[in-house]
Amino acid sequence: MANILVVEDDLVISQVVCEFLKEQGHKVIPVFDGQIALETFYQEALDLIILDIMIPSLTGLEVLKEIRKTSQVPVLMLTAMGDEYTQLVSFNQLISDYVVKPFSPLILMKRVENILRQKGGDEKLDIADISVYPTSGSVSLGGKEVQLTKKEYDILLYLAKRRGQIVSRDHLMMGIWGYTELDSRVLDNHIKNLRKKLPTLPLKTVVGRGYQLEGK
């Protein structure tokens, strides 16, 4: 079962897509607004996002651009915009597929199935004796799974993808929470819990600059 965010402001289309996905056993989160889509992305561990382009608040392309700053979660664009330029812009942001309306729900489900199958083959990230599995959102230490909260996992993955780089606190907060106006103790507590749960994590605090996950 996958956790799928459906971003579509047409209520009829949203309902059709959601019902078909539920019939396939997936958990579905329907939203109808670009800003809410981003907020949901930051809060949920998602396996796939189905994203319309012409939606309120933020366009689908704006949402996609923000998502790609911190995540490579699969995105399927579902839109009435079939022009070459829009498709190229979307694929340049590493989308998994592009479906033009009107569409066949059955074919859409096959495309979703294909994306999720490919996603299952992604490689894990190894850090010392710690393994991070971006496809399932799981983490293991010495081969034994470790339970992290959503934010702990997001911080670990964010730093793992920037291994060797010094990541500022503001950069980290923006990447994980989407804003920097955050009580610094919140981030400190998440980092403290990560170090406690993963005692071999080579995470260094660079005074006055931020954090660095050591290695290549």
Descriptive report:
There is one protein chain. A five-stranded parallel beta sheet has the order 2-1-3-4-5, sandwiched between helices. The chain has a four-stranded antiparallel beta sheet with strand order 6-7-8-9, covered by helices on one side. A three-stranded antiparallel beta sheet has the order 10-12-11. It is built from eight helices and twelve strands. Helices cover 41% and strands 22% of the residues. It has helices at 11-23, 34-43, 60-67, 84-92, 105-119, 150-160, 169-177, 184-197; strands at residues 3-7, 27-31, 48-51, 75-79, 97-100, 125-127, 130-133, 138-141, 144-146, 166-167, 203-206, 210-213. The protein is of the alpha/beta class and 216 residues long. The model has no long low-confidence stretch (mean pLDDT 89). The radius of gyration is 18 Å and the shape is globular. Helix 1 packs across helix 5, helix 2 (34-43) runs parallel beside helix 3 and helix 6 (150-160) packs across helix 8.
Task: Summarize the structure in short.
The protein is α/β, with parallel strands linked by helices and 216 residues long. It has helices spanning 11-23, 34-43, 60-67, 84-92, 105-119, 150-160, 169-177, 184-197; strands at 3-7, 27-31, 48-51, 75-79, 97-100, 125-127, 130-133, 138-141, 144-146, 166-167, 203-206, 210-213. Helix 1 (11-23) crosses helix 5, helix 2 runs parallel beside helix 3 (60-67) and helix 6 (150-160) packs across helix 8.
